[in-house]
Amino acid sequence: MSEIIECLIIGSGPAGYTAAIYAARANLKPVMITGLEQGGQLMNTTDVENYPGYPNGILGPEMMEDFRKQAERMGTEIRFGYVNKVDFSGAVHKVWMDETKELQAKTVIISTGATAKWLGIPSETRLNGSGVSACAVCDGFFYKGKPVAIVGAGDTACEEAIYLSKLCTEVHMIVRGDKMRASKVMQDRVTKTKNIKVYWNTLTDEVLGDKAVTGARLVNNKTSDKTEIKIDGFFVAIGHQPNSGPFKEFIDTDEQGYIITQPNSSRTNVAGVFACGDVQDKIYRQAVTAAGSGCMAALDSERYLSALGH
């Protein structure tokens, strides 16, 4: 018979580790399954300067190592592996780790995060963290007074372009079609911002630079004309993919795949299953908000178990 875990946490980003810290302090004996991307998106981030408590900033991987050490010190058992299947149909929730090992849990906290969508060009991968970023709010500050480019045509891309325009000398906005998907109000804000230059019907041929971004080569997808621009930062804002796949049979998600939680809580549609962090947050997507929602999930889990008399 499989062991029955009080609180099983799936995912090891800021949300998962914070949930683990709170659950461990509540004596829930949490077990964490790290996932394949241990530490989450912050493992691909260099300087983190907007998380409270680090006055001099910190490297993303170092920050996540601090989170891990604190979770373990509080009593979290960390298991390295990934979840490929679940069964939330019964009172005790079943989770399969590494395809074969079955775990049973009274409560489950899903904190599997989201993965940024990329263009898929080699130079983008090579310079990721050295001028290439998928989060303007996270990294825009580093390009204050410098020219940057952003790829995207939705509301998020427009919002981030406007954010960057307040910090950077010039924002080159690269749109692959002849119109944006963004709402009209966001498009109007972009067109009225003097230091945003929109490139219509344009693709990124290559991000330029050896050790850091120095420019980008753009290609018009109608005329095939190529243009090189000088930039110090290259932002990709074409969306995120929430890592909710294994749970969709039982857990309600929106049309994009983000897990739906009840207002002012981390509760899902399944009793005893909670969600936190970027797998359920498509609005803020920050480490600090993910950590806050991890705290909520652990408290909700503790209250759920208390109500059952555990």
Question: Any descriptors?
Answer:
310 residues; alpha/beta; FAD/NAD(P)-binding domain; 2 domains; 7-stranded mixed sheet; 5-stranded parallel sheet
How is this structure best described in words?
The protein is an alpha/beta fold. It has 2 domains: 180 residues, FAD/NAD(P)-binding domain, CATH 3.50.50.60; 119 residues, 3-Layer(bba) Sandwich (FAD/NAD(P)-binding domain), CATH 3.50.50.60. It contains 7 helices and 19 strands. The protein is elongated and about 65 Å long. The mean pLDDT is 95.
Describe this structure in a few short sentences.
This protein is an alpha/beta fold. The chain is 25% helix and 27% strand.
* Structural class by secondary-structure content: alpha/beta
Percent in helix: 10-25%
Radius of gyration: 21 Å
User: Which CATH class of the largest domain applies here?
Assistant: Alpha Beta
Characterize the largest beta sheet: strand count, sense, and whether it forms a barrel: 7 strands, mixed
Oligomer: single chain
What is the number of strand segments?
Answer: 19
User: Which band does the percent of strand residues land in?
Assistant: 25-35%
* CATH-defined superfamily of the largest domain: FAD/NAD(P)-binding domain
H and E order? EHEEEHEEEEEHEHEHEHEEEEEEEH
- CATH fold category name of the largest domain: FAD/NAD(P)-binding domain
Overall mean confidence score, pLDDT: 95
Number of helices: 7
Q: Please tell me what the overall shape is.
A: elongated
Low-pLDDT stretches are none
| CA-CA gap between termini | 20 Å
CATH architecture of the largest domain: 3-Layer(bba) Sandwich
Domains (count): 2
